[in-house]
Design goal:
alpha+beta, 4-stranded antiparallel sheet, Arc Repressor Mutant, subunit A, 14 helices
Length: 269
């Protein structure tokens, strides 16, 4: 019986923008009937497609009971998810290029997308997302990711692939603001304008978010409590700086995070 699997897009053009599809069936087995699961602030857009049941979610002081697909953009706050009524679903996880990884699939601008951290997917994709959802509901487990692959490929507009994506890909893991300035020979003001237009964030804010998200995901999956590992890997000044930033974004100290059921613990890295 398949419970949880991760697939990479089969097409290179899609893989440029999408990290993976996370496909779950029999979610109660995966989550061991734990109802409250935390997801922390981040810059990685995700498309959540329920296949059987509904997702219960709390974000920004509001409760949602969602049977239709949901699109998250840039999330500045914690979200609390409850999968007890959602038996099967697919998460489409885009690349960590903030909204630059999402723009090639949607008609909206980064400014428009930044107005809401959570969007009903039909407001972006129209009835096409309902058609995909219906196909997934009757498809075999092993065929579902191919349907998502085809659906996204049909919506890929390469004219919307911008400056940021090219620069980030060229820099790879070494990407930082200094590298971007050297690579482009642009002034900071030009880089900032183009970056914000395509991602919804300034370069500095993006880098702070990216560092935090990478650090917290490593913490939650490795369970390593040697804070010096994170300080050295992610460039924090010292232990106080590391703890302060984690608490700033999540509301919890690192030791507290390890006591909470968190989404990165269950899904693929």
């Amino acid at each position: 019986m398949n419970i949880s699997e991760k697939y990479s897009p089969t097409d290179k053009a899609l893989a440029k923008h999408i990290e993976y599809y996370w496909h779950v069936d029999h979610s109660h087995t995966l989550f061991h009937n734990i109802e409250t699961i935390y997801s922390y602030p981040g810059i990685t857009p995700e498309l959540i497609i329920p296949i059987e049941g509904q997702l219960q979610l709390t974000y920004g002081g509001k409760d949602y009971h969602i049977q239709d697909s949901l699109l998250s953009t840039v999330m500045p706050q914690n979200a609390v998810l409850n999968f007890s009524a959602l038996r099967a679903f697919i998460f489409v996880r885009f690349k960590r290029h903030a909204l630059a990884s999402l723009l090639p699939f949607v008609p909206q601008s980064a400014d428009e997308l930044m107005e809401n951290a959570l969007l009903m997917a039909e407001d972006v994709f129209g009835d096409a997302i309902h058609q995909l959802q219906r196909k997934l509901q009757v498809a075999e487990f092993h065929n579902r990711y191919e349907l998502v692959d085809e659906w996204l490929f049909a919506r890929l507009n390469r004219d919307r692939e911008g400056f940021v994506l090219d620069v980030m890909q060229a820099a790879g893991q070494a990407y930082n603001l200094k590298a971007m300035l050297q690579q482009t020979n642009y002034s900071y003001s030009t880089v900032e304008r183009l970056f914000k237009k395509e991602t919804g964030l300034t370069p500095k804010k993006y880098l702070v978010f990216k560092r935090f998200k990478s650090c917290v995901e490593q913490l939650l999956t490795s369970r390593d409590t040697d804070w010096s590992d994170y300080i050295g890997t992610y460039g924090y000044y010292d232990q106080s700086h590391f703890i302060k930033e984690v608490k700033k974004f999540t509301g919890y100290a690192p030791t507290q995070l390890l006591q909470l059921p968190s989404l990165p613990t269950y899904r693929p890295a």
